[in-house]
Amino acid sequence: MTALKKTLSAAVCIALCVVLPMIFHAIPNGGVLFSPMHLPVLLCGIITSWPFGLLCGLAGPLLSFLFTGMPGAPMLPQMMVELGCYGFMSGLLISLIKTKSTVFNVYASLIGGMLFGRVVAGIARMLIFARGSYSLPLWISSYFVSCFPAIIMQLVLIPIIYSVLLKAGFIEKR
User: Distance (Å, rounded) from C-alpha 145 to C-alpha 71?
Assistant: First the structure.
């Protein structure tokens, strides 16, 4: 993928970080249930590279906050940590994992990015953002249970979107 395509893809994904939350927050609890910013950040890392994924994960929540007020100011730094890790790790893993199965490569990168982001965000929350009031059950509840529909949506949609972009010739097989 050319540098221009990567830049434009990242810009579209960052824009989606602003637009998708507005759509999903129209649904009661839609923001919590579907984590709409996570989808474009993970996708950006996988289709571009880790630097663009990291940029998307940092800039997406910040621009969304500046334009729409979402996420709220107390959640913004936490989300930037989590989403930055998603974009970074999914992009790094897709460049490192080289099996013959594109589906496996995408799923391994996606799941690895999701786990890395959740672990780092949980550690950051424990040490910095919610010092002394954060526990393992709270981490499991907030990063796995309450957002389970989002996890399923990401595991279903991202490989499909990747496959469509691959078949359309927009991205090359990695």
Answer: 20
